[in-house]
Design a protein that fits this description.
Bound molecules: 2-phosphoglycolic acid
Radius of gyration: 16 Å
Structural class: alpha/beta
Shape: globular
Strand content: 15-25%
Number of helices: 7
C-alpha cells in the first residue's frame, strides 16, 4: 500500500489525476471505476483540466460507478448519474454510452445488481478503481458489518451515512434509505485502487490501514489488496 500525503485538496486531485493519466496512457481502453461525494471533485476538476489541454484521452475508456441511490431518477440533482455528468462526463471526451451506473429506479434490485456484475465482467473487470471513504469506514455504500464476499447488492444506509449525506440534499428533502452498491468482492477484483481522503477522514483512514481487518471498518479490507494508493490530505 502506498500513502501519498498532500496538504491541499487541489494537490490531492492533481496527484490522483496523474494516476488516471498513467493508466489511460498505458491502456487507452481501460475500465475506470468511479466514485461520487465531495472528495473526488478536485480529482474530476484536475481530469477536466488535463482533458482541455489534450493531456489525457478518455475516448476509448469505459467507466463504472460504485453506487447509486434507490428511488432517484438520473435527472434528480442528488442522483449519482447527475453528479457524474456534471462533475466529470460533460467535461471530458468520454462517450456517454461508455459510462455506466446502476439504475436506482430498477424495480427488481437483484436483477439490476446481477446485470451490473455481468456488465463489469463483460468489460473485463476494473483496471483502476477510485474510492472515497465514509466517516464510518464505508467504501461504496458497503456499510460496517458488510460481508467482504458480496458482489453488487442493495443495501440499507446507516443513520450516520444518511446524516453525513443530508448536507447535500435541500431542506425538507430526505436522503434515500437504500442504495445499490458494488460489493467489496467487486471492488477487490480491481487491478489497482486509489482512495482519496480529505483531512476530515484522517482518523478513519489511519484506523482502516493500521488496525485489524474488520468488517466493522469496511475499508480495512484494502490491506489485503496488492495495489492500493491512498492520497490523503493532512
Ligand atoms: P465524501 O464521501 O467524499 O462526500 O466525504 C465519501 C464517502 O462517503 O464515500
Amino acid at each position: 500500500m502506498r500513502i501519498e500525503k498532500v496538504n491541499s485538496e487541489q494537490q490531492m486531485g492533481e496527484v490522483a489525476a496523474e494516476l488516471f493519466k498513467s493508466q489511460l496512457s498505458a491502456k487507452p481502453g481501460s475500465v475506470l471505476g468511479l466514485a461520487t461525494g465531495t472528495t473526488p471533485i478536485s480529482l474530476y476538476d484536475a481530469l477536466a483540466g488535463m482533458c482541455a489541454k489534450n493531456e489525457i484521452d478518455f475516448s476509448a475508456a469505459n467507466t463504472v460507478n460504485l453506487d447509486e441511490y434507490c428511488g432517484l431518477a438520473p435527472s434528480h440533482p442528488q442522483s449519482y448519474r447527475y453528479f457524474m455528468d456534471k462533475y466529470l462526463f460533460d467535461r471530458i471526451n468520454i462517450k456517454k454510452e461508455n459510462t455506466h451506473l446502476l439504475n436506482g429506479l430498477a424495480e427488481d434490485a437483484a436483477a439490476e445488481c446481477a446485470r451490473y456484475d455481468a456488465l463489469i465482467g463483460s468489460l473485463g473487470e476494473v483496471d483502476l478503481q477510485l474510492l472515497g471513504i465514509g466517516p464510518n469506514g464505508h467504501i461504496g455504500f458497503n456499510e460496517p458489518a458488510s460481508t467482504f464476499s458480496r458482489a453488487t447488492q442493495k443495501v440499507a444506509l446507516t443513520q450516520s451515512t444518511i446524516d453525513a449525506n443530508s448536507r447535500l440534499f435541500s431542506e425538507g428533502e430526505s436522503v434515500p434509505g437504500y442504495a445499490l452498491t458494488m460489493g467489496i468482492k467487486t471492488i477487490m477484483l480491481a487491478a489497482k485502487i486509489v482512495l482519496v481522503a480529505g483531512r476530515d477522514k484522517e482518523d478513519i483512514v489511519n484506523t482502516a490501514i493500521n488496525g485489524d481487518i474488520d468488517p466493522m471498518i469496511p475499508a480495512s479490507v484494502l490491506q489485503l489488496h496488492r495495489d492500493v494508493t491512498i492520497v490523503m490530505c493532512v
